[in-house]
Amino acid sequence: MATRNTTQPSGTLFDTLLAYANRITAPSPSVKEPAIRRRIHILASLLLVVIVLGILGVVLSNLIAPASDPGEQLTVTISTFLIVVIFCLSYALSRTKYYLWGAVVSVGYLVLAVTVSVAAVPENLNTDLGYLSLAVLLGGILFSVRYTLLLIAVTTIAGILLPALHPDVTLSDAINILLFNFIMSGLIAVLVVLRERDISQIEQQATELVKAVEDAKSANLLKDEFLATMSHELRTPLNAIIGFSEVMMMGLAGQLEEKGVHTTKRIHHNSQRLLQLIDDLLDISKIEAGRIDLVNIEIAPQELLADMERTVKPQADEKELAFIMKLDPNLPGTLVGDKQRLGQIMINLCTNAIKFTDKGSVTLSLRYENEQAWCIEVMDTGIGIPLHAQEFIFDKFRQVDGTSRRAFSGAGLGLAIVRELALVMRGNVTVSSKVNEGSTFTVTLPIIRPSKGG
Amino acid sequence: MPIDYPNTCFLLVDDEPDSIEIVEMLLSSKGSKVVTASNGKEGLALFKTETPKFVLTDLSMPEMNGWDFLINLREVESTKTIVIAVTAHAMDGDKERVFSAGFDGYIAKPLNMFSLLDDIEKWLD
After folding, report:
1. How far apart, in whole angstroms, are the C-alpha atoms of residue A171 and residue B32?
2. Tens digit of pLDDT for each residue in A358-414?
3. Rounded to two decimals, what is the model's pTM?
4. Are A243 and B23 inside 8 Å of each other by CB?
5. Which of A247, A272, A274, A344 to mutate to test the interface with B (most CBs of B within 10 A)?
């Protein structure tokens, strides 16, 4: 309830006052039940605010219109406190889920105010109106400066209009204006309540949002678990397929005929493709969930190329393509980066290049760009990529030929992974290509030098 | 081409018979003695009687998993045994967990028979 004002002041003077009161009326440790303790705390704070405001109101109304006898003083005091209580109660209620009761209280007050002002006999009002006016303005300032300004504007207009509308009124124009103030104070309360109702709705939405975020988090955890389980379950049968086909290729399950060797190789090749697909799918979902942790170590660029010699060259050899590797001598001898992920970028780009090249060469260069950047560049002499397709080839599951009759297999995840990894490494990837001449993919990455002495 | 290692006894522990059979075929072809178990408990019993030099074990298994198997094995071994985790848990961090548990090596399934022989040779040296 009102306790949250200490942490979330909404800016009105009342909230500030309540926050101070909250600090003063620390909950008594003797009350064990937390809910009851909280309620006592809130009521004590409200009571403190009511007392302070009430005394302030009485003092100020006496300054403006001093009471002529003890009876009148009592009336002034009771009236002031009553108004303060009504204001505080409706406002405090309006900040809770009981805001409708806040509205009821303030509307009740408005009705009372209108009734009093209509039934008022001018002679009796003369001295009481001073503090009423003060209470109104005080309430306005306490709860909303904006509505107070509105009030002043309306009363000024009313002050001009009322005497004109009521030429027979015997009291001064000022009293009419003050009466109007009285009614307007009720309006302030109603408006404040309405505004606070909006706030409580917003707060309710905020609570729902927090819940939604928590749900999403737990859904993400489930997804992680699911991915780990799927990875495990898919690998187990694949292990058997790949393992048995390798054992057969090694001739350990009896010597195979030429046709048998061919068939086994196809089984092996396709199961490797399936494995790659599983790895790519797991990778892309991990990257998209922002769960890639780079393991940055010191790497010599030639090490990276040596790895490619092992993994990529056999693929190029199989298609009788030249696989050329170039190392820029201007590159620093040691770079800091995630070796495995850099390897993945190079493998994906090279595999892609080999797939779409039927004759000629695939060139992998590690190039020095400037003080801040270096590049992994893969150039092929393949079929090329038409300009319109260059925009989407980095999207998931996209190939230039998206039809089912396409000539090239693959899920279209390799380049998407390259782009995501480049972004994670604070770099980017670009492509330039001419149909039937070839394509060049360039991944530009920041140069991270090893820290000296480290 | 990897050399034969006929004097080495291997213990394979895995609840997947297929996984065992593949590696058994490969190692038997090298003339090695191979004993197999389908969980950590059986593996431990075999370890005590056969005292293999080299152990390849799965991690997720019924009765006794690979992690507990390793702990028990380390308690009873008289000389240092090479224990390699062979697992289909190939997500980030799995490898690190395996090494910090005290395994001597980590191989992700699916196994590559060609590189498995290279790896075994490396570990045997």
Report:
1. 119
2. 999 999 999 998 888 999 999 999 888 888 888 778 877 666 655 544 455 565 788
3. 0.53
4. yes
5. A247
